[in-house]
Specification:
Number of strands of chain B: 0
Strand content of chain A: 5-15%
CATH class of the largest domain in chain A: Mainly Alpha
CATH topology of the largest domain in chain A: ABC transporter involved in vitamin B12 uptake, BtuC
Structural class of chain B: mainly alpha
Structural class of chain A: alpha/beta
CATH class of chain B: Mainly Alpha
Number of helices of chain B: 12
Number of helices of chain A: 25
CATH architecture of the largest domain in chain A: Orthogonal Bundle
Distance between the termini of chain A: 57 Å
Number of strands of chain A: 18
Distance between the termini of chain B: 33 Å
Order of helices and strands of chain B: HHHHHHHHHHHH
CATH architecture of chain B: Orthogonal Bundle
Largest interface: A-B, 82 and 72 residues
Strand content of chain B: under 5%
Helix content of chain B: over 70%
Oligomer: heterodimer
Shape of chain A: globular
Strand order of the largest sheet of chain A: 6-5-7-8-9-17-16-15
Shape of chain B: globular
Radius of gyration of chain A: 28 Å
Number of domains of chain A: 4
CATH topology of chain B: ABC transporter involved in vitamin B12 uptake, BtuC
Helix content of chain A: 55-70%
Radius of gyration of chain B: 21 Å
């Protein structure tokens, strides 16, 4: 427990300020700042400092709210889902019911209180374990959000005065949401460390039974922290909406784990009874600065996760050992068993530290390598694409790095970068995550790249950041999916949603001779792109093919195994379905495997996917055709166009772009057209290697 | 033999809920009960069942493991790579289970030896392993597996039977061991009260380390059995699997603080949560509501626990009152 000072004697200053191991975090934070200050581009600037704060507000609010929850020995897994529910309720109240935005915000905060109230009721009143209660509400809140919107609704177009809250600047540099983080930190500081309520929370965390005997209203205190945490989650949701400019059911997915990580890294004991608000803030910034710094140093983003995990274990080990040492000084409080640090324990610790050191060394090596690369062009006159002797840096972002579709785009992009002597940065969210996209673009703006090319997940959200990039003189392209027209210079248009919808529908109609039932396996139910395609598929059906009937749309969550199981069920529930259309890269092979194992030779599979994943099924005759453009060419064209735009050779009003190996391509207004979507089938699929 | 039914109240209520669901489906969508559907349902829940067995052990011992989804992904990819270098499929199963055990032992060491809370350790391990795998594979699938990989090289029907048999023998083995072996009872003892167990001569750190290693090995096995149902291996398998397993264990009546629960309950929990999605599709309900319904089931399961306990306490109170 906390080394609480005895009544007569005050503890030494170090112990009062850093009762846990917060000093280590401070050192870590300093180390991060020094390392990234040297290796990152423009890391130590005022703008970047405030950008880091802007990025940490939503997670920060959750982390602050979780600090007292964890101090009482509880946990709240539902905060991320509460953000999703709050976001769509706020959007719905404002757009569908026509309430003024600030009133909707107020009601949303009340909703957060209600959600927190449900947790509080079950945990404080009925004495149920917090982990399970909030695991239940974790599913419940997210499920309600998806159910209410049909997971399709996407609220955007909020008034500028509201968006200013998340995107604007006070006095030219201060992001307004900083105020909320500071206020929340102050409130929680006084609540936890300067009020009787705070003391009772520590007591409850140390031992709830003891606290009850001491006359503390345990249930009421517990209820309070869960109510506050629900409210903080809905406030985080409001700021999230203002930050991104859109409200969707998937807001805040996975945020609970990041927030818990920050709290625990900040020295709060997961068993309860100790922790500090400033520790949480230090933990929060240690993580956010790490992510931001790695990005500015263009090191792989995965390192952030790996390092966070290692740091988490390492700081706790450190705490274990230093507090053991401290206890050895006061031998009255220890049992003999705790005194001995066993050899095996030392061994484990050494291994962990070695692993951490290896990873740090590895990342440093990567950093050094990137520095060398940046210095290299000076000694490499062969590089063709230069602006004033410096290599052009093109930063390119997919929607999700792990998606096989984007993996193949990257190959093409790298080929072009190599030919043209361009430095290519490739970074983006690991899974679909609009907030992360904004974060990465912000990082690139700070770092100062020459061209940014984005495959846009959320139009309304990212456009404001892209406009900012253009104001700073960075050329902006979009590829794969477009932003708002005035937010970018050119759009590399591989196919419009309408074109995809029509091609898929026409192909389905051709295979079914215009008659029969079919089903769609989509990505996640709230995937924006897929919903757009489905809209056009439905429109095309209504317009041209009255004989075709779309009987089911099932989600696959981008998971092949889920697509497989959903297809199996669809085939049984709708025995007349003669065609399955998969519209996410892993959904098509998943559906094909299900059809193959069911032995249904009368059912055909088509869809939008990457040829390499479907090749064997196409040869087996299960997948009739795959609709896609040449993704290698798309990546290639994007980098090439970036180079042309930067060199001033591609300007608005041009009619044609000479695109190297792709020949001359049409330019329509500010769209560079890759050509029509391509249909891969048995005859031609072997010619493509991606 | 008179079975004390009140001891299995939680299992019973989960079973009743499951029966109700089955009956609803029987009336509204009898096509649900086709052989093919039941077989497919069984097969797709095999990985969840196997990891839920491991999770039951972990939770019974008073611990938790949220890193198993990442372990599952690593083991899946490893199974594919091992098969590609020509290892026979039986050896692949074995090596992958060992790999899982090794990953589990990392958790076990940190939790049992250094006494770091399990949720923190496994949170850290989850993030580290998932991002490490992403870094290495960059999302690429393992393709062009050898012919003998899918279905153990036995063909679809025999392969399916073998997978189901394997899963259920694992389940039966652990269910038996948990009730009848000294080690099994020791898990309950440690979960109920680690200090008391220590005084009774059981080594809590050995048991806790052991359940994490077991969890890892079972995760490896589940990953391998899942992989051989397909012709390629995706790099992001098992996302969210940990929550599915925890939910199934809890719905099946295992106390989250350890010391109480049965594998039979876990089986019912897996069946209930695993059937609901398919049942919804058969009933023609929009899949949007699936997640909300699962959350409601978890809450209902634990809330019913409270009601039962209260009723029991009241009865006990009445009985003990002096006449």
């Amino acid at each position: 427990m906390t080394p609480t000072p005895s009544l007569a004697l005050r503890a030494p200053l170090k112990q009062r300020i850093f009762p846990n191991h917060e000093w280590a975090l401070l050192l870590l934070l300093l180390a991060e700042v020094v390392i990234f200050g040297v290796t990152g581009s423009n890391f130590l600037t005022r703008t970047n400092g405030f950008e880091i704060i802007r990025l940490s507000v939503e997670i920060g609010l959750l982390a602050l709210a979780l600090t007292p929850v964890i101090i009482t020995g509880g946990i709240d897994l539902s905060v991320g889902s509460m953000m999703g529910l709050s976001a769509i309720v706020c959007g719905g109240l404002w757009r569908d019911l026509g309430l003024p935005i600030w009133l909707s915000v107020l009601i949303t905060l009340l909703l957060g209180l209600c959600g927190g109230g449900l947790n509080a009721l079950l945990i404080a009143r009925f004495n149920l374990p917090p982990l399970i209660v909030t695991l239940g509400t974790f599913s419940l809140f997210r499920g309600l959000a998806e159910g209410i919107t049909g997971a399709v609704d996407n609220y955007s177009g909020f008034p500028a005065s509201f968006l200013f809250l998340g995107q604007g600047y006070w006095f030219g540099f201060l992001p307004p949401q900083t105020l909320f983080l500071v206020a929340a930190a102050a409130i929680y500081f006084f609540l936890l460390h300067r009020s009787p309520i705070g003391r009772s929370l520590f007591a409850i965390g140390f031992t709830a039974e003891g606290a009850r005997y001491a006359g503390l209203p345990v249930a009421r205190r517990l209820a309070l922290v869960y109510l506050l945490s629900g409210c903080a989650a809905s406030l985080a949701a409001v700021i999230y909406i203002a930050h991104l400019g859109q409200a969707k059911a998937d807001a805040g997915t996975g945020y609970e784990l990041m927030a818990i990580t920050a709290v625990v890294l900040g020295g709060t004991s997961i068993f309860g009874g100790r922790g500090t608000v400033w520790g949480t803030l230090l933990g929060l910034f240690a993580i956010v600065v790490l992510q931001n710094g790695l990005r500015l140093a263009s090191a792989p983003a995965e390192l952030a996760g790996i390092l966070t995990g290692v740091l988490l274990v390492a700081t706790i080990c450190l705490d274990r050992f230093t507090s053991r040492a401290a206890r050895r000084v006061a031998p009255a409080t220890i049992s003999t068993e705790e005194l001995d640090v066993k050899n095996s324990q030392v061994a484990v610790l050494s291994v962990v530290i070695l692993a951490a050191a290896a990873i740090v060394a590895g990342s440093n090596w990567l950093l050094v390598r990137t520095i060398k690369q940046e210095l290299a062009p000076a000694a490499n006159p062969a590089a063709t694409a230069t602006t004033g002797g410096k290599r052009i840096t093109v930063a390119m972002m997919p929607k999700a790095k792990g998606d096989p579709y984007f993996v193949s785009c990257r190959k093409g992009a790298e080929e072009a970068a190599q030919q043209l002597g361009i430095e290519l940065l490739w970074d983006g969210p690991t899974d679909l995550d609009p907030a992360k996209q904004n974060e990465v673009v912000e990082g690139w703006i700070t770092r100062g790249v020459d061209v940014i090319a984005v495959s846009v997940e959320n139009q309304a959200g990212i456009s404001s950041v892209l406009r900012k990039a253009r104001q700073r003189g960075i050329k902006v392209l979009t590829w794969d999916a477009d932003a708002e027209k005035d937010a970018r210079d050119f759009f590399i248009n591989q196919a419009t949603p309408q074109g995809i919808g029509q091609t898929l529908t026409d192909e389905a109609a051709r295979l079914l001779n215009g008659q029969g039932e079919f089903a769609i396996i989509t990505a996640s139910l709230s995937a924006a792109n897929q919903n757009e395609w489905i809209k056009h598929i439905k429109a095309r059906l209504a317009e041209k093919y009255p004989g075709l009937k779309l009987v089911a749309i099932q989600p696959s969550d981008g998971d092949r195994d889920r697509a497989f199981a959903e297809t199996q069920t669809v085939l049984k529930v709708y025995p007349n379905v003669k065609l399955i259309m998969g519209i996410a890269a892993p959904a098509v092979p998943g559906a094909a495997e299900a059809v193959k194992q069911a032995g249904r030779q009368d059912v055909k599979v088509i869809g939008l996917s990457v040829p390499s994943l479907c090749k064997s099924y196409v040869h087996d005759g299960i997948i009739e055709s795959v609709v896609l453009w040449n993704t290698l060419d798309l990546g290639y064209l994007t980098v090439l166009a970036a180079n042309e735009v930067k060199a001033g050779k591609l300007n608005p009003g041009d009619r044609e772009l000479k695109a190297g190996k792709l020949g001359a391509l049409e330019v329509r207004e500010t769209d560079v057209l890759l050509g029509k979507p391509f249909i891969f089938n048995k005859a031609n699929i072997d010619q493509f290697d991606f | 033999m008179a079975v004390n039914l009140t001891r299995y109240q939680r299992e019973l209520s989960a079973a009743l809920a499951y029966l109700a669901l089955l009956m609803l489906v029987a009336v509204a969508a009898p096509a649900f009960y086709s052989f093919a559907n039941l077989r497919d349902l069984l097969l797709s829940n095999v990985p969840v069942l196997i990891v839920a067995v491991g999770m039951t052990l972990v939770i019974l011992a008073g611990q938790i493991d949220i890193s198993l989804g990442s372990q599952f992904a690593i083991c899946s990819v490893a199974a594919g790579l091992l098969a590609k270098i020509g290892l026979p499929i039986v050896l692949v199963l074995l090596v992958v289970a060992l790999l899982g055990a090794a990953l589990g032992s990392l958790n076990g060491m940190l939790v049992a030896r250094l006494q770091i809370p399990a949720i923190v350790v496994t949170l850290a391990v989850m993030v580290t392993l998932r991002d490490g795998l992403r870094w290495l594979t960059e999302g690429r699938w393992v393709q062009n597996l050898p012919r003998g990989f899918q279905w153990f090289g036995l063909g679809q029907n025999a392969g399916q039977v073998l997978i189901i048999l394997l899963a259920f023998s694992v389940f039966a083995l652990f269910a038996w061991g948990l009730q009848n072996l000294a080690a099994g009872r020791a898990i309950y003892a440690v979960g109920a009260d680690a200090e008391a167990a220590r005084l009774a001569g059981i080594s809590p750190s050995l048991i806790i380390g052991g359940v994490f290693i077991m969890m890892g090995a079972l995760t490896g096995l589940a990953a391998a059995l899942n992989s051989i149902r397909f012709s390629d291996i995706q790099a992001n398998a098992g996302a969210g699997l940990e929550l599915k397993a925890i939910a199934a264990v809890v719905v099946g009546g295992t106390a989250i603080n350890g010391g109480r629960g049965t594998l039979l309950g876990t089986l019912i929990g897996v069946a209930l949560l695993g059937t609901i999605g398919t049942a919804l599709t058969f009933l023609g309900v929009n899949p949007f509501w699936e997640k909300a319904l699962q959350g409601a089931i978890i809450l209902a399961a634990i809330a019913s626990d409270v009601l039962f306990t209260r009723a029991k306490q009241r009865r006990a109170l009445i009985q003990t009152q002096p006449a």
